[in-house]
């Protein structure tokens, strides 16, 4: 087996949450390009475009729907994915939400939903995924989508920053428990990406300029910029890498 072979995902089955658009779609397609079959989750709309792109690669693809603010959804999502494609080997906890408001005006309902979707649901899905791997005696990979705000406080997004900080710590906690069982748990912390979450920032000429001036790469990231990191952290090439939060940020945190 060559080094390049260790990046292949042939014969493996992945579940990617929030795979309808943006970062989740890019990572789902990247995993399929590396050989995986992929169950693609979205909240309430079948991610038809992502499914079509995966099928065009000759890989199996299946839709999985569920609102991650519902604490009962994670188990159903894993069950549906495995019923469609077989036992899961890879979990990408990517789905997330954001709410922008000054802390003094940040309603409890908005706080609760952001924490539920961004932190509680990744734990519940990982817990169900991990239980099944352990019962099978199988190895596997979990990849969480963290954020630059896993390291920084951000502006006007207290619930988002809290959830992503918590997700980084959850990544490390699960890695500590499951490394000896052959389950790696890592996270990617994307920088400022051109997605729907950052549309308000990109539409604000002053804020957009401030952000671009700080990014050494001099541009907003694109979802495809996560592809290589995602494949690496979900493959045998990273079998001795766990508990890490990898920034894919154009150099933002280095400045």
Explain the overall architecture.
- The chain has 255 residues and is of the alpha/beta class.
- It has a single domain (4-192, 225-249), classed as NAD(P)-binding Rossmann-like Domain (Rossmann fold, 3-Layer(aba) Sandwich), CATH 3.40.50.720.
- Helix content is 42%, strand content 15%.
- It is built from eight helices and seven strands; from the N terminus they run βαβαβαβαβαβαααβ.
- The chain has a seven-stranded parallel sheet with strand order 3-2-1-4-5-6-7, with helices on both faces.
- α2 links the parallel β2 (37-42) and β3 (61-65).
- α1 packs across α8 and α3 (73-85) crosses α4 (108-136).
- The longest helix has 29 residues, at 108-136.
- The protein is globular and about 50 Å long.
- The chain starts with 12 loop residues before the first strand and ends in a 7-residue tail after the last strand.
- The mean pLDDT is 97.
């Amino acid at each position: 087996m060559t080094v390049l072979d260790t990046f292949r995902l042939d014969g493996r089955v992945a579940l990617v949450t929030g795979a309808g658009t943006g970062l989740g779609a890019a990572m789902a397609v990247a995993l399929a390009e590396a050989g995986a079959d992929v169950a693609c989750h979205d909240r309430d709309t079948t991610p038809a475009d992502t499914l079509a792109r995966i099928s065009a690669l000759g890989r199996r693809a299946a839709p999985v729907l569920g609102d991650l603010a519902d604490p009962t959804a994670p188990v159903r999502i894993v069950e549906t994915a495995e019923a469609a494609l077989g036992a899961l080997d890879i979990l990408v906890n990517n789905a997330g939400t954001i709410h922008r408001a000054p802390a003094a005006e940040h309603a409890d309902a908005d706080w609760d939903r952001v924490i539920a979707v961004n932190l509680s649901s990744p734990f519940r899905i990982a817990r169900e995924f991990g239980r099944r791997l352990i019962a099978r005696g199988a190895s596997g990979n979990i990849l969480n989508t963290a954020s630059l705000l896993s390291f920084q406080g951000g502006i006007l997004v207290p619930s988002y920053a809290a959830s992503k900080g918590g997700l980084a710590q959850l990544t490390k906690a699960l890695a500590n428990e499951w490394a000896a069982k052959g389950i790696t748990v890592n996270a990617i912390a994307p920088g400022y990406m051109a997605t729907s979450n950052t549309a308000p920032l990109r539409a604000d000429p002053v804020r957009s300029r401030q952000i671009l001036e700080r990014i050494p790469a001099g541009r907003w990231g694109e979802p495809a910029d996560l592809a290589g990191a995602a494949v690496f952290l979900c493959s045998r090439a990273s079998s001795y890498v766990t508990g890490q939060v990898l920034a894919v940020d154009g150099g933002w945190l280095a400045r």
